[in-house]
Each structure stands twice: as structure tokens, then as C-alpha cells.
Amino acid sequence: MKIILTHEVTGLGAAGDVVDVKDGYARNYLVPRGFAIRWTKGGEKDVAQIRRARKIHEIATIEQANEIKAKLEGVKVRLAVRSGDAGRLFGSVTPADIASAIKSAGGPDVDKRRVELGSPIKTLGGHQVSVRLHPEVAAKLGIEVVAA
């Protein structure tokens, strides 16, 4: 299925790109979450508008991304969650939890869609998280998950 991306999707493309994906992936994941719209001939106008907005945004944020990266890497983030006796969490830590913990620790406001987890965080202790601020700039952030 041919779709137009409205947001950047890791491993697939940036906003405004027209890509071919499997029908189920588009129907069940990308379109319902607002990451993409179905491609139509009339949608080409949308592609041009999305690309223009992306171009303006990228030029303005490459310097800002480096500034935010420096701020993020200087923040100590502690996240208190419920856990069992063996140090396993009830559930897992989500990108939204990490984004709110960064803000409460005095860091900059980060969109939860920019937080990338290598694997689900389901145990107490220190973990590394990547925050993709720009296609060329990513900040490595250490978070400490502690029992609440």
C-alpha cells in the first residue's frame, strides 16, 4: 500500500515521504496513530506542504538540537515505578514516562515519539535511552529506574 508519512517513522522515512508498506502495517498501525495518510492523487498537494514545513523546521532546529542535546545529557533522570521483590517491574517503562521524568528533572520538554528504547525496560537499575532530536542529532540519556 502506498502511503504519505505525516511524522518521522524510524526505519521508514521522514514526514512528507511517499513509501510502500504492507497493507496491514499501514491499516493497523500507521494510519490509526496518525503517522501516515493514504496516498491519493490529490494527496500530492499535502506532500508538498509537509515537505515545505519539514524543510523550514529542519533548518531552524539543527542548532537548537545540539543545544537541547547538551542540556539532556547533563540531566540526571530518576524514575520511580512499582516493582516486585525480585526487581522486576509491574509492566514496563514507556517513552511517555521517560519524557515526563525528563521534564520533572528540570530538563527540556521532549516529545514522547522522539524517545527510542532499544528494548523494553522491565527491571530496576540504570538504563540507556536515545532521544532523537533531529535526523542527524541524537542524545544518549542515562536513566535510573528505582522502586517507588
From TrEMBL:
Limits of the Ribosomal protein L9 domain: 13-40
Keywords tagged on the record: Ribonucleoprotein, Ribosomal protein, RNA-binding, rRNA-binding
Superkingdom of the organism of origin: Bacteria
Pfam families per the UniProt record, alphabetical: Ribosomal_L9_C (PF03948), Ribosomal_L9_N (PF01281)
One cellular component (GO) term of this entry: ribosome
Coiled-coil residues: none
Alphabetized InterPro entries for the sequence: Ribosomal_bL9 (IPR000244), Ribosomal_bL9/RNase_H1_N (IPR009027), Ribosomal_bL9_bac/chp (IPR020594), Ribosomal_bL9_C (IPR020069), Ribosomal_bL9_C_sf (IPR036791), Ribosomal_bL9_N (IPR020070), Ribosomal_bL9_N_sf (IPR036935)
PROSITE patterns xref list: RIBOSOMAL_L9
Function according to Swiss-Prot or TrEMBL: Binds to the 23S rRNA.
Similarity remark: Belongs to the bacterial ribosomal protein bL9 family.
Name of the protein described by the UniProt record: Large ribosomal subunit protein bL9
